[in-house]
Design goal:
The chain is mainly alpha-helical. It has helices at 8-14, 27-40, 48-55, 59-62, 69-82, 94-111, 113-120, 127-143, 147-168, 171-183, 189-193, 204-221. It has one domain (27-221): Tetracycline Repressor, domain 2 (Orthogonal Bundle), CATH 1.10.357.10. It is built from 12 helices and no strands. It is flat, with a radius of gyration of 26 Å. Residues 47-66 bind DNA. Pfam families: TetR_C_1, TetR_N.
Length: 222
Amino acid sequence: MYGVGVSTGSRNSDRPSRRGPRPRFTRAEVLRTALRLIDSGEPGAFSMRQLADEMGMGVMTLYGYVRDKQELYEAVTALAFEEIPARPTTNGPWHERVGDAVRELHAICQHHPNLLTIALTDDKLKPGLFQRRELILTALRDAGFSSENALHVLGVLTSYAIGFAVAQESPALRQLPLEIRHKRAEGFPGLSADAANYAAHLDPAAFEYGLSLIIRGLRADL
């Protein structure tokens, strides 16, 4: 009532400050780029600096998308396992469900061998490997295997899926036929004679053949 006006400046000062510019990339784009770099580089060579350079941003900007390298690895591992959706656990015969889950686990490991190496040595990333194991274990118990035997079989199947993928991506094993042919002929005549076809034991048909042998043995054991 004394004619005192309200300062426009004080009103403006009460307004929230404008937000900064929108990020150039989505979090999903950052994760996909990280997965590509992990896949394409040498095992253990990936760094946050490398990712930041690839994205054209500073390292500190990168930490606006993920809290730290551990969180990045966890998110990238989840992304890799989402590429091949898990099939329902209760549809179809138990041996088909087991076969599907083993194939899915093998495919993921084969597509991302460097990430697999990281996941197997980091306890916080191993839950990414658990989903298919859970599917396999459920199917085995539905089939009638005891808890103890189901766990034994689970170990065999997951070791087969992961180990076969690691072997398929091993440069040393891919070069072994040449070594057998040129350096080991005298000591290993059988291998030397089949050196030209030796790599076939790591091809997709070999994986399917081995898996079928395991599953047939399991069905016969029930």
